[in-house]
């Protein structure tokens, strides 16, 4: 009898371990609550997609950071070899040893990073990604396991679901069409490949679908064909739940547009993700808008300075820090048990590091004519670029988050 009990316990352990963490969202009397293996979990997240100066998706030479080992020492460069330029002289001085981004993220208080898109060694999926070399290789799951096991940081894994034509197979000039059956099949295959690859990994927190797809700048027709988009999103979410019942699915939306459509046609979405750069200060009526229109837990999937303030070609770090502080306080004050409606489960600050390719010249730290200055959102900068991809200048906002996140339950 004892032998059978031991066998049962062993099999139970294997099955439980094979599924990784069990992540749930539940509506309780005081608001929505996210939990991991039964423990409350509030997302203190950062959008993480470091890129080397000179590399760009527009040039076709952007590499997956999880594969970059330029000094060929067997360590992923950004994860373990970045260093802090303490005196901002753009030189690696003797008192500036390698630290690595993973350690810097941990010390900041981050518990989750948001990453897009998943790499794949599947030849069928690689054909769909044919114009995007960044993801056409097997994934480096070892690095993500280390991120979780040594540094305590989990991952929200995202599929663009056709944003920027990634995964749909559409041409850039045409954009992704959610009424096109072949494109829908391509995108579903991409998601299925992602889920099959990562669903049992201990670092996985949840799945994310899309990124501002309802914004025309994402190169999709979601805003023009909202019903087709919403029904497809629900089809994909339902399929994810069939493959993996242990991790929730987030729909990542640009602001609150189409919430009425989602409320009617996406019942299988677990969490509504909103990319919002409101600076009221904070998010104003956003939490109540979502609670009124779409009764789902709210995750702020990207937030920060709407238009970074640039003075004498330098970022105003005090302004950046204050915007982030106000935003996080608003997010934190809307968690379950605090202010009503209590529908927020956390947020992802945008973004970890300045990304020099966003204003079209990847070799220069450009300002933009429209004032959005997309290359200046980093919590850390790359200095003058001479030591990209490893130099880190920690901005004031880094220390503000460190103060808030390491002391906050």
Notable characteristics:
409 residues; alpha/beta; TIM Barrel; 8-stranded parallel barrel; 3-stranded antiparallel sheet; 11 helices; 16 strands; 30% helix; 17% strand; disordered N terminus
What percentage of residues falls in helices of 4 or more residues? 25-40%
Q: Element order, helices and strands?
A: HEEEEHEHEHHEHEHEHEHEEEHEEEH
Tally of contiguous helical segments: 11
CATH fold description: TIM Barrel
Label the structural class: alpha/beta
CATH superfamily: Glycosidases
Distance between the termini: 45 Å
* Rg calculated over all Cα atoms: 21 Å
Q: Could you list the spans in which at least 5 consecutive residues all have pLDDT below 50? A: 1-17
Provide the CATH architecture.
Alpha-Beta Barrel
> What fraction of residues sit in β-strands?
15-25%
Largest sheet: 8 strands, parallel, barrel
The tally of strands reads 16
What's the pLDDT, averaged over the residues? Answer: 93
Strand order of the largest sheet: 4-6-7-8-9-10-11-14
CATH class: Alpha Beta
| Domain module count | 1
Looking at the structure, what is the overall shape? globular
Can you give me a brief rundown of this structure?
This protein is of the alpha/beta class. The chain has helices spanning 2-18, 77-80, 101-108, 123-128, 141-151, 181-198, 226-243, 259-265, 286-293, 317-333, 396-405; strands spanning 23-28, 31-36, 39-40, 43-47, 83-84, 112-116, 154-159, 204-209, 249-254, 271-275, 298-303, 310-311, 314-315, 344-349, 380-381, 391-394.
